[in-house]
Amino acid sequence: MSTLASALPEVTNRSNPLVLGIESSCDETGVGIVRGQQLLANVISSSMDEHARFGGVVPEVAARAHLEALAPTLAEAVATAGVRLSDIDAVAVACGPGLAGALMVGIGAAKALAVALNKPVYAVNHLVGHVGADVLGPEGPFELPAIALLVSGGHTSLLLVRSMVNDVELLGETIDDAAGEAFDKVARILGLPYPGGPEIDRAAAGGDPAAIRFPRGLTLPKDLAAHRYDFSFSGLKTAVARWVEIRRDAGDEIPVADVAASFREAVVDVLTAKAVAACVDLGVPRLLLGGGVTANQRLRQVAQERARTAGIDLRIPEFSLCTDNGAMIAALGAQLIMSGAKASPLDFGADSTLPATRIFVT
Amino acid sequence: MVILAIDTSAGTSVALVAHNGEVLATHDTLDTMRHAEVVGQAIMNVLADAGVSASEVTLVAGGVGPGPFTGLRVGLAAAVAFATARGIDLHPTVSHDAIARGWFEQQGSGDLTIGLRVVTDARRKEVYWSDYAGLTSGIPVRLTGPAVAKPDDLPPPVGEGSLNTVNAAAVSAIQLALVARAEQGSGITRAFQPLYLRSPDVTLSQGPKRVSS
Ligand SMILES: [Zn+2]
């Protein structure tokens, strides 16, 4: 009979580990498989359509969808990667920040997978995972230190990344709504469907981004003193709502294209201005974008223009690696393993407010 | 031939039971808030205590509830993942059936005809409930439920000797494994369907609220 340990073994293959990553922090169930810095599979199942009639992500709906999607997503990732689960060196899972009930589905799965395979598990930070995604791109890892702007429906954060395995600093984050949430809410104001990002983008085509001067949150000198790299989108949303109401009350036609373009311009302006300012202030001429809002064409365009002007190297991973996904979690896990980091103790839980500075659970 | 049973519909209960019904190991945590924290170690503990390796497990029984959603899903996610990792079947098993089987077992051996109502906490001043008529071939005969209701709204129990009620605060994964074993033996299968018994709390979008007066 084999001897049975009471703890999972550490990884022995530290040079090129095969890692399976699980992501379930919001409405995407992601399972990714990487070997070192090589992407083998990135399968995403989204419950976005189920949230459409509610106008935003409903946590319980998302959590139920994660459990339903778990088995098929796992199976598809393994088949796509062309590996056997028994060949996996380690499991990585996002344990926060995010929706607690959603995160717990991934955590329960990751732990049982690890025990079933007798392999260790790394509980990693979802935000830093967005940074980890970058190593999987065709251009190879981005030089560090770099500034990372991570924008989605769940988070809006600006990080200084000196090392993705042991040195991440939070420069700023949203103090109210995430940027993606603002897109959803303004889409509702304009009578556009969910999710708002692509709808606003479509509606803004042909609109004049300078037609209406909407407020840029936390950009006044007095705000910059305390919130230099923080974001706020709640006032902007209210300003758009007020602008639209006044015209509707007066019986005027709403110039949807102009409102959408002007709103989008306000969001993109603040995001890129603060990210570029961080690069300049800190003397770090490298900017990495991540998160679902990077799909926004105008954000990409303005980021490119401003980065070029400021002499900043801009990196935007391909969209399937920008949106929430399991490959980025696996990639960060692999980086940790290659750096010699020990696996997480098996008693970790979900931490919905896990700070960006906690890269993984030790 | 070993069954791994996982139930997180109340606390976290994990057990290993041989196919002949012999209990090999069990690990129970009553805490109803820490399923995600303890489920991995619980599975490791039963394997280590029994001296069984993960590759020797041949069936996973997963408790489908009813139970509070967040915790319930942790055990089911673990059950799905373990079965997938080992390439073995998952037998979704009703958690109330495990409670009922445990109670019937205390009444005597073999088939029984005794009415029983199983009641568990559903939070929000409601209970989950199921009615049983007895035990046949090791399988509790469920007449009604699982369902959710306010305690005052429960219908009168049905079945024989219908005054028996068990209010359970825990579910035994041993009993869950034994129900799964009996159902497998009788060719009973069940679709993977968590018994939430409530719709998610959501409010349909009424359009944006006014911001100006
Ligand atoms: Zn994200």
From TrEMBL, chain A:
<keyword id="KW-0963">Cytoplasm</keyword>
<dbReference type="InterPro" id="IPR000905">
    <property type="entry name" value="Gcp-like_dom"/>
</dbReference>
<dbReference type="InterPro" id="IPR017860">
    <property type="entry name" value="Peptidase_M22_CS"/>
</dbReference>
<dbReference type="GO" id="GO:0002949">
    <property type="term" value="P:tRNA threonylcarbamoyladenosine modification"/>
</dbReference>
<dbReference type="InterPro" id="IPR043129">
    <property type="entry name" value="ATPase_NBD"/>
</dbReference>
<dbReference type="GO" id="GO:0046872">
    <property type="term" value="F:metal ion binding"/>
</dbReference>
<dbReference type="InterPro" id="IPR022450">
    <property type="entry name" value="TsaD"/>
</dbReference>
<protein>
    <recommendedName>
        <fullName>N(6)-L-threonylcarbamoyladenine synthase</fullName>
        <ecNumber>2.3.1.234</ecNumber>
    </recommendedName>
</protein>
<dbReference type="GO" id="GO:0061711">
    <property type="term" value="F:tRNA N(6)-L-threonylcarbamoyladenine synthase activity"/>
</dbReference>
<keyword id="KW-0408">Iron</keyword>
<keyword id="KW-0012">Acyltransferase</keyword>
<dbReference type="Pfam" id="PF00814">
    <property type="entry name" value="TsaD"/>
</dbReference>
<keyword id="KW-0808">Transferase</keyword>
<feature type="domain" description="Gcp-like">
    <location>
        <begin position="38"/>
        <end position="330"/>
    </location>
</feature>
<keyword id="KW-0479">Metal-binding</keyword>
<keyword id="KW-0819">tRNA processing</keyword>
<dbReference type="InterPro" id="IPR017861">
    <property type="entry name" value="KAE1/TsaD"/>
</dbReference>
TrEMBL record, chain B:
<dbReference type="InterPro" id="IPR022496">
    <property type="entry name" value="T6A_TsaB"/>
</dbReference>
<feature type="domain" description="Gcp-like">
    <location>
        <begin position="34"/>
        <end position="154"/>
    </location>
</feature>
<dbReference type="GO" id="GO:0002949">
    <property type="term" value="P:tRNA threonylcarbamoyladenosine modification"/>
</dbReference>
<dbReference type="InterPro" id="IPR043129">
    <property type="entry name" value="ATPase_NBD"/>
</dbReference>
<protein>
    <submittedName>
        <fullName>Unannotated protein</fullName>
    </submittedName>
</protein>
<dbReference type="InterPro" id="IPR000905">
    <property type="entry name" value="Gcp-like_dom"/>
</dbReference>
<dbReference type="Pfam" id="PF00814">
    <property type="entry name" value="TsaD"/>
</dbReference>
